[in-house]
Design brief:
This protein has 417 residues and is α+β, with helices and mostly antiparallel strands. The protein contains 11 helices and 18 strands. Helices cover 32% and strands 24% of the residues. Strands 9, 12, 13, 14, 15, 16, 17 and 18 form an 8-stranded mixed beta sheet that branches. The chain has a 4-stranded antiparallel beta sheet with strand order 1-8-6-3, with no helix packed on it. Strands 5-4-2-7 form a 4-stranded antiparallel beta sheet, with no helix packed on it. The chain is extended, with a radius of gyration of 32 Å.
Length: 417
């Protein structure tokens, strides 16, 4: 029986996918549920499992865009699994075939050698293009090759005077590597590019900045991170503080937790926080659902789970769909400051950056504190300057006073210790 394998629907609104990589060869025997291909949608990379055991016949090539429901391969379910010896050395004819191929290669080798060998130009001598020691030093400083210069010395030798006078023309290659490569962008990367351009062209995006003294969070993590990790199995990182600070600020400024729907402004009474993470296939934005109901432990556990699934290519479309606000942490890559681009149709995104010790004025005295610059990009069509600045100040206040504003003055209860 021949089974037609069709492209399943990866999620709502997705009409086609792209064959990113076949994990099997045409004619291979595959087992049921074995991953036979990786397919890219505009939201995620997914594995395509075999629907039955049998011999596979591929009907699409890597890079092909195929519609949902289209046949991509055939599986002959009547075929029997090959014996293990087939994989461990082949049949007896394998050595004979190898010997025939080797004989052909040996026969063809002399012709290839004769073809590649080219005679030297008749007018050149043994000294043509050879630089004297003094000339060689000068040419090295100019990053020039002696063979590119016509020497005036005996038998065409390049002299010191030739090297001094030699000047490479602007844009002329001087021996450096000038190679290039070309590769097709994945469907996910192309979709990300489209959405970024769309956000820039369709929103009235502005960015406001502030700075956060991270000393209180450093002190809390130093005192409780080991106990927290030993009890909960996850680290007490910065994302839980920022996520809960965002939840608090969104409650104070609900316009930032809104989006435009036609001629209406849609405001949410829940907080689904999208977190931008870098995966093997590019930028991915999984969502922490109902972050307003999560504790520090809950946020850290969910961040770890989603980051691991994104890294391993197991993230699903549903896990990246939705989100009412985004947090992007460019600081892990060393970014000092940036203007993050809104993740449409959301109206706001908070950018975190690296933490650097900087001199700051504290009660009239200069002190060294760990400072992080934060940036809020927002859609000015529905968020006014008052809301945007107030939101970012609220985030700053919560991060600089987490014990009172995020933990209700009960650190051990908040951390569930």
């Amino acid at each position: 029986m021949i089974l037609e394998m069709k492209v399943p629907s990866p999620g709502e609104s997705i009409t086609e996918v792209e064959i990113a990589e076949w994990l099997v060869e045409d004619g291979d025997y595959v087992e049921k549920d074995q991953a036979i291909a990786e397919v890219d949608s505009d939201k995620a990379t997914l594995e395509l499992p075999a629907e039955a055991s049998g011999t596979i016949t591929l009907k699409a090539e890597e890079g092909d865009a195929v519609a949902v429901g289209q046949v991509v391969c055939l599986i002959d379910t009547a075929a029997k699994a090959p014996e293990s010896s087939t994989y461990e050395g082949g049949d007896e004819g394998g050595n004979e075939d190898a010997e025939q191929d080797l004989a052909k290669d040996q026969k063809a080798a002399p012709n290839k050698e004769n073809h590649e060998k080219a005679p030297n130009p008749a007018k050149e001598t043994y000294a043509s293009g050879v630089a004297s020691p003094a000339a060689k030093k000068i040419l090295a400083e100019k990053n020039m090759d002696a063979s590119s210069i016509t020497g005036t010395g005996k038998d065409g030798r390049v002299t010191k005077d030739d090297a001094v006078k030699a000047t490479p023309s602007m844009g002329t290659p001087t021996g450096g590597n000038r190679g290039s490569s070309r590769s097709k962008m994945s469907m996910l990367r192309r979709k990300v590019a489209e959405r970024l351009v769309e956000a820039k062209n369709t929103t009235a995006m502005l960015t406001t900045f502030n700075e956060v003294d991270m000393s209180p969070i450093f002190a809390l993590r130093k005192e409780y991170k080991e106990t927290f990790k030993s009890k909960h199995g996850v680290s007490l990182g910065f994302m839980s503080f920022f996520t809960l600070a965002v939840v608090r600020a969104l409650k104070l400024y609900p316009a930032v937790n809104s989006m435009i729907d036609g001629k209406e402004m849609l405001t949410y009474d829940f907080v689904d926080v999208s977190i931008a993470v870098s995966g093997p296939k590019g930028l991915m934005v999984p969502v922490i659902r109902n972050a307003e109901n999560l504790s520090f432990r809950g946020v850290e556990a969910e961040v770890k789970r989603l980051a691991l699934r994104a890294r391993d290519g197991k993230i699903t479309v549903d896990e990246m769909t939705g989100g009412t606000f985004t947090i992007s942490n460019g600081g892990v890559f060393g970014s000092m400051l940036s203007t993050p681009i809104i993740n449409p149709p959301q109206s706001g995104i908070l950018g975190m950056h690296n933490i650097v010790e900087r001199p700051v004025a504290i009660d009239g005295h200069v002190e060294i504190r760990p400072i992080m610059y934060v940036a809020l990009s927002y859609d000015h069509r529905i968020i006014d300057g008052k809301e945007s600045v107030g939101f970012l100040v609220a985030v700053k206040e919560a991060l600089e006073n987490p014990t009172e504003l995020l933990m209700d003055n009960d650190i051990k209860r908040a951390l569930e210790l």
